Amino acid sequence: MGFSLIDAKEKFLKLLDFSARREAKYCAWEKQAQAGDLETIYRLIALYPTVDEKFYPLVFKWTLDQAYKGEDCRILRQAAQMLENGHGTAPDAQQALTWYERALSLHIMQGANSPFSLEEENDLQQSIQQLRRQICPEEN
Is the pLDDT of residue 2 over 70? Predict the structure, then answer.
């Protein structure tokens, strides 16, 4: 079997198919994440919001997985944002509100060790107030 021009062309086109390469990379990361590789889980979570929307469900899955652990207020906030905007999941204002409130509570508990700035804290509070008005307009 020799080297053909058609084989070379196909290999070249595959090399240029960034979308397929990216998809294969994220698929490999998914397998590593399922095996419990925390670094890969955080790599998947960090794709939001810059990754193509077709990968939002994958990002949401791992964001929510880590959000349930309740250890990082940034991840709690990301879960809330994804739920609020329907990124990778159906929009759910009530669940988004819950995650925003959890993020704010964790931020307050962490005090000076929290990764949030005062501006981010204010943004969280503002998001909470907006969702409360949206969910229960008669109470506000």
Answer: no
Question: How far is Cα 59 from Cα 79, in angstroms, rounded to an integer?
Answer: 10
How far is residue 94 CA from its own chain's centroid? 18
| In the predicted structure, residue 49 carries a pLDDT above the cut 70 | yes
pLDDT of residue 16: 67
Please name which of 58, 49, 50 lies closest in space to residue 28, comparing C-alpha atoms.
58
pTM of the model: 0.86
In whole angstroms, give the CA distance from residue 116 to residue 104. Answer: 9
The count of residues in the chain is 140
Contacts of 124 by beta carbon, 8 Å cutoff, 6+ apart? 77, 100, 103, 104, 107, 116
